[in-house]
Every structure is written in structure tokens, then in C-alpha cells.
Amino acid sequence: MTKVYLINDMLLFEPEMRRIGPLAGYPERSVSLHGPVSECLLQLLEHNTQVLTQRFLFSAVWERQGAVVTTNALYQTIASIRKALKTAGLADDIIKTLPKEGFKSVASLRVGDRDEFLMPHDPPSVAIVTEKIADIIEPCAQTPVVKQRSSIAYWLAGAMFIFSCGVFFMTLNDDASVFTNYHKMGNIGGCEVYSSWQDIDKSRSTFDALSLRYPVTCKPGMVAYLTLNHAQHGISVITCDRNPKDGEANCNSIFYRQQYHEDK
Questions:
Q1: CA angle 160, 255, 259 (to 5 degrees)
Q2: Which residues pair with 6 in a beta bridge?
Q3: Among 15, 62, 56, 17, which Cα is nearest to 39's?
Q4: Residue in 240, 241, 223 with CA at minimum distance from that of residue 186
């Protein structure tokens, strides 16, 4: 039996399968969700009506997986949750943003087994879902974090990460790409992957290992850049939906804080 959530008597959310869809026609009309979107939605629903702080969501979704992301990544994840709910057929905005406080769910919620909700019944009429949203950038902690913990090392790593991202985006308009000296690792799942390392075999094994720690979303037609950053004692992966020199390119970055050594 699979535990699911019935939202506003209209949508079924199945965390185990990372999908959400209208009660009528589930799961054929369901929308697929990527890890952070599914897990954050689960956390919001498990703490329905409670305010979850940004600090809590950072810790629960990314840091426990060894990744450090910016506030913008959190807001993009919340926006993706809203888009998924709307795409699945829910008109009401059940995810609320409270300035300087955090986020909370205000859904009408029922929790039970999937088979229980999918038994023959007369569900409310819903629009047919014709759009599939792409996989979007892990389980969350059990209780909200009220007091923010910080350390000099943590904030230094965050500042260095933001600085490196800034340098990356500023160089996109230069004639010489910042990735000119990167080495092509090959095609992985349709995605062209490049590495700052010369050892292609080690680069591929490292890329696979990082993907197990925290999924790297890189679909056919996209490009990914694997960078060893000695200053940050970690590895960053930048994915773009097209060549980053294209002014319309949309890029995302993940920073893995664990230290790696190229000469080992």
C-alpha cells in the first residue's frame, strides 16, 4: 500500500513515485517531479499550516546531501511546486510566501493509501492535463529549524561559491569562453559533459559519484561543466540548456563541499 496525499479533494500526491496528478485518471495524467520539488512539497504538506523557514529548507533539502545552493535556487524550487500544482489542475495557490518568515502550505489535506483514494467514486470534474513539466533540482528534517546555525567556515564556503558563480556569468559575454580549456568527457545520457580535469576516466567516475549524492539534471541537448575548485575544497557542476555563450542560456549550479584531489 502506498501512502499518498489528497490535496483539496482534487489532486493526488505520491511522494514515493515523485508525481502528482488529478484524482480522475491518476496516474496516467500525473506530472513528474524532480527530487527537491517533491521533497519540499512533502515537507510543506507534512507541516501543513506551519511556517517553514528558509534555513530549515536549506538544511533539509540540500545541505544534508552535501550540496550548497543560493537563495535563488530555493525560490525556483517553490515556484516549480506552484507550477506543478497548477499544471496538475489545481487553481488555488496553496503555497504561501511570508516575507522575512518563510513558506507554508494552506491545503485542505487528507492522508491515506493510494488504493483507498482510487477506489470507484465520483470525483469532481477536472481539466485534462496536457503539459508535462520537466524534472526540476531529498527528504527533509522532521521539525522546522527556528534558530539559524552558522560558522565561519560555512559562510566562507558560501561566499566563495557565490563569487565563483559571479565570475562565471560575467565571463559569458567575453570573446574567449571561460570553458575554453575544459576537456570533453563525452555524451552522458544525451548531455555533453566537460571537465576541468585532464583525466577523462576519473572525471566520468567522479561525475557518476556526484550524481548519486545529489542528482544532476542534464538532459539531451544540454551541457554540463565539472570544475575542481581548490579554494572551496569541493567540486561544482554547472548545467546549461544550451551553449553558455548564448545570451538566452539558462544555467544552474550545484556545489559539492567534499574535498577531492586530482592527483589521487
A1: 85
A2: 12, 110
A3: 15
A4: 223
Nearest to 90 by CA among 15, 31, 36: 31
Half-sphere exposure of 79 (CA within 13 A, CB side): 7
- Contact of 130 with 28, CB cutoff 8 Å: no
pLDDT at 170 over 70: no
Retrieve residue 174's grid coordinates: 567575453
pTM tops 0.85 = no
CA-based nearest residue to 167, from 223, 227, 222: 227
Q: Which residues contact 204 (CB under 8 A, 6 or more apart)?
A: 185, 186, 188, 193
* pLDDT tens profile 62-78: 787 777 888 999 999 99
Distance, in Å, from the CA atom of 194 to the CA atom of 181, rounded to the nearest integer, reads: 10
**Per-residue model confidence as pLDDT tens digits over 186-238:** 888 788 888 887 788 877 878 887 777 677 778 888 888 888 754 445 677 88
Which grid cell sits at 59? 538544511
Q: Which residues contact 147 (CB under 8 A, 6 or more apart)?
A: none
